[in-house]
Amino acid sequence: MTISPPNRDLIFRAFADPTRRALFERLCRDGALTVHALTEGAAISQPAVSKHLAVLKSAGLVHGRVQGRETRYHAEPMALAPLTDWLAHYSSFWDHKLDGLGDLLKRMDQ
Amino acid sequence: MTISPPNRDLIFRAFADPTRRALFERLCRDGALTVHALTEGAAISQPAVSKHLAVLKSAGLVHGRVQGRETRYHAEPMALAPLTDWLAHYSSFWDHKLDGLGDLLKRMDQ
DNA sequence: CGATCATATAACCCACGGGTTATGGGTTAA
DNA sequence: TTAACCCATAACCCGTGGGTTATATGATCG
């Protein structure tokens, strides 16, 4: 059995929780948001949100920038690389995905 | 906050555990294996392996086929689709991945 | 300066997950 | 048919993770 790099572990663990995935998705969509803004509509308390953000941060998936009394968090999509690499490695899936790839390349050419 | 399809939840939860990822990886590499074979070198007991396999199975990631007194499990790489879809949606990462794609297509043409 | 806001941390609770041993049911071998 | 084997399930233990409330710290507003 192979030992996975600690990074990958942290990322998988971070995404195991749906609330954390939702936070990450929201940060991907809406850009930089404060903890307060993220707490709105999250159905959990502010400390809970802060803890989730800490987990995402320790996995390198988000960054927090202090601005005065508030902290704006933003997503770090490049941190998904270990995930995509892992998937690329362990799925014959690509073969099928490649079917629609010609079209994709054509669209990129335009 | 969006509600994720239950499938995705199950897959992420299943992969949260490194032992389960290792089992899945091994089944991807080595094809169909018995529980006994998977237990060898897994550093955990056979019941533990069985439980992990049950989790992977409930996520659709592996299938078990009973053959006499043994059960051979095999990976179901297509079940990774929800993961790749999610990643494709939430990563600007693909743009970079596409760089090496021309070569890949050429190789497939041969 | 005093009050309020924004956030992180502490302290705590409880459910769940991953491990174990024990066991039962089904299958092959002797 | 008796014994050994393969596997799943049951029953249990315990650490951890996600939730809460309370609080400390720092920044802004009046």
Structural descriptors:
homodimer; 110 residues; alpha+beta; three-stranded antiparallel sheet; 3 strands; disordered C terminus; DNA-binding
Layout of SSEs?
The structure is a homodimer of 110-residue chains.
Chain A: H1 6-15, H2 18-30, E1 33-34, H3 35-39, H4 46-58, E2 62-67, E3 70-75, H5 81-89, H6 93-97, H7 101-109
Antiparallel strand pairs in A: 1-3, 2-3
Chain A binds a DNA duplex (30 and 30 nucleotides) through residues 17, 19, 34-36, 44-48, 50-52, 54-55, 66, 68-71.
Per DSSP, what share of the residues of chain A sits in E-state strands of 2 or more residues? Answer: 5-15%
What overall geometry of chain A do the principal axes of the alpha carbons give?
elongated
Main-sheet strand order of chain A equals: 1-3-2
Helix percent band of chain A: 55-70%
What is the CA-atom radius of gyration of chain A, in angstroms? 17 Å
Please provide a brief summary of the model:
The structure is a homodimer of 110-residue chains. With 110 residues, chain A is of the alpha+beta class. In chain A, 58% of the residues lie in helices and 13% in strands.
How does this structure look, described?
The structure is a homodimer of 110-residue chains. Chain A is α+β, with helices and mostly antiparallel strands and 110 residues long. The first copy, chain A, has seven helices and three strands; from the N terminus they run H-H-E-H-H-E-E-H-H-H. Chain A has a three-stranded antiparallel beta sheet. In chain A, a hairpin with a 2-residue loop joins strand 2 and strand 3. The longest helix of chain A is centred in the first third of the chain and has 13 residues, at 18-30. Chain A is elongated, with a radius of gyration of 17 Å. The termini of chain A are far apart. The model of chain A is unreliable at 101-110 (pLDDT under 50). The first copy, chain A, binds a DNA duplex (30 and 30 nucleotides) through residues 17, 19, 34-36, 44-48, 50-52, 54-55, 66, 68-71.
